[in-house]
Amino acid sequence: MQLFFEPRSVVLIGTSRQTGPGAYNNLEMLLSYGYPGRIYLVHPKVPDIMGYKTCPRVVDLPEIPDLAVISLGRERVVPTAFECAQHGIKRLVVISQGFADADARGAELQAELVRLAREHGVRVLGPNTMGVLNPFSGFTTAFIDVPRDPAPSPLTMVAQSGAFQVGASSFTGRLGKAIDVGNACDLDMVDVLEYLANDPDTRIIVLHLEGIKRGRLFLATAARVARTKPIIALKTGRSLAGAKAAMSHTGSLVGEDTIVDLALAAAGIIRVRTLVELLAVSRAFLKFRPMAGPRLGVATATGAFGIIAADACEDHGLELAPFPEPLRDLEEERIPWHKLGNPIDLWPLGMVTGSFTGVFKRAVAGLFADEHVDAVLGVGPCFTSPRHADLNIPRRGPGTALRQPPAQTPGPAALRRRSRPPGPGGGTGSGTQCGLL
Question: How far is Cα 374 from Cα 372, in angstroms, rounded to an integer?
């Protein structure tokens, strides 16, 4: 797997002669991504592309590259893969579509590709894939322009679609490494998980699953990896229509969803069902360490959201912490009919004192100080109107001072404390930790 993510040399076969909009030129993308290795091109009709000399055949290459990226019509893929194998290239990324994701002929071609790979000791990623994205080493096989993150996150995406690489900001937020297994004719989720288990750049793993190959081994491998690195999975094809679409997208067979749900849970995989959940859970693992216990303190601007938080606690195995007695000093400023508890409804106190943010800070500080509170959830307004700027709750990141949120930032502020020792999520140390979820 290392050579897929960090090849010292690569040959691109089938690169477009065009550049710019509409060209989908993977050489252009590779150069703009900052790849430092040696690049070779195979093209039978032109002498050079973007200033890089081409070779008419694979056999004409001056060395044996670590990796070949094939972007050809499906009928030409197997013969080209054979040329690569004959030349000694042991790692192939097949971008091309039209295999098991298409028709009977495509399934035959994919079977031929698998037979060839096994006979020659070649590993194949794909077909029908965007391939690999590695901002740590500056390598990508993408034919879509994905900007390189100068400070990659420790979250690795393993998907059956390149869309999760292209739209990472919408699906997981920050992204580190990514790999699209496509039809997974050879390399599959098991192979990738084995690699990521010891990958120092990966602390969080996100899976997009249409089907699950080598089911028992996948679950056993995931269970082992999940002990040290959290695995979040978006398993699609839950409905009849979704299962049919999965067959036409990557040729994946999907199982009974209830059984899949139980199996993923038994392996310690955190399943999400929507892209909204995927983004929220991914951001939570990126921003926060694991909680030391299940006890949650809630400071909220509205009792309604406190009730929602209480319901969510029960749904997800958390519990509301006892109300900290030192916070009873807020009673001096409360109105007679307002009863304090956890969740702490702060709106009436904020209106009476004339400083909602002041009351909010005092409540959160009191929750943080209580040893019976393992985490704090703060729910407050973030108005865009300057007339209510005094009500906006400042954000706080781990180890940072309070600062005002951007004018258009909605949503709750979530603050956590008391981390566990290193474990799922990669947290280290202890003490108060804050951030925006």
Answer: 6
Given a cut of 70, whether residue 89 has pLDDT beyond it is yes
| Torsion sign (Cα): 345, 346, 351, 356 | negative
Q: Which residues of 352-375 are buried (b: 16+ CB within 10 A; e: fewer)?
A: eeebbbebbbbbbebbbebeebbb
Q: How far apart, in whole angstroms, are the C-alpha atoms of residue 247 and residue 100?
A: 9
Q: Confirm if 29 and 144 have CB atoms less than 8 A apart.
A: yes
Token digits for 215?
Answer: 């089911």
| CA–CA distance, 167 with 207 (Å, rounded to integer) | 15
- The DSSP code sequence of 94-124 is E----STTS-HHHHHHHHHHHHHHHHHT-EE
Q: Crossing angle, helix 215-225 and helix 189-197, to 10 degrees?
A: 20
Q: Which domains does the chain have, with CATH numbers?
A: 1-128 (3.40.50.720), 149-287 (3.40.50.261), 289-434 (3.40.50)
Whether pTM > 0.90 for this model: the answer is no
Digit-coded pLDDT (tens) for 99-146: 999 999 999 999 999 999 999 999 999 999 999 999 999 999 999 999
H-helix segments, 149-188: 163-166, 168-171
For tokens 């409540």, the residue is 363
Q: C-alpha angle 260/262/264, rounded to 5°?
A: 65
